[in-house]
Amino acid sequence: MLSPDTDPATIRRFNSEVQLAATQIWAFKRKVLGLILRCQLPGGNNFPLLVDHISREANYFRNRLEELNTGRLEPLPDAIIDENVFFLRIMADHAKFISHLLDPSERQLVEQARDFSHDFDQLLYQARDLESMRPQSQTVPLLTQFLDQNRVSVKSLRDFKKTARELIDACRIKSIIHPLLADHVFREAERFLYIIDMFEQYLKGGQVPLQQLAH
Question: Is a pLDDT exceeding 50 seen at residue 211?
Answer without folding.
Answer: no
